[in-house]
Amino acid sequence: MTAQRGFTLIEVLVALAVIAITLAAGLQATGALTRAATRQSDQWLAQICAENELTRLRLLRQLPGTGDSEVPCLQAGRDMLVRVAVLPTPNPNFRRIDAVVQGDVDGNTVRLLSLSTILGRY
Fold this sequence. Notes:
The protein is an alpha+beta fold. It is 42% helix and 37% strand. It has one helix at residues 9-59, and strands at 67-75, 78-88, 94-105, 108-120. Strands 1-2-3-4 form a four-stranded antiparallel beta sheet, with helices on one face. It is rod-shaped. 13% of the residues are buried.
């Protein structure tokens, strides 16, 4: 009698299970990296929107009045909304300005970035 060579069915199934688990873990890691890259890109574009609005207020060369406003912003084909809140400070020569950028992520409107600064009288 000769000894048979080869793998048993159980060994093949165990090997396939190990490969399937490894591939599933790799897919999850790839998905997480893709989501992180997209989120980073969204935040970068949101920062550009917020900084543009704060720079616009600085270039007016006058102390803005207190209150809230909304400014649409289009960056790299993405529609975003910049909500600007101008708040008084204890010193009347300064204003606190908060810019919150919102955008659509997976069909939901989410806050992408919040940026604050102080603007003084010129």
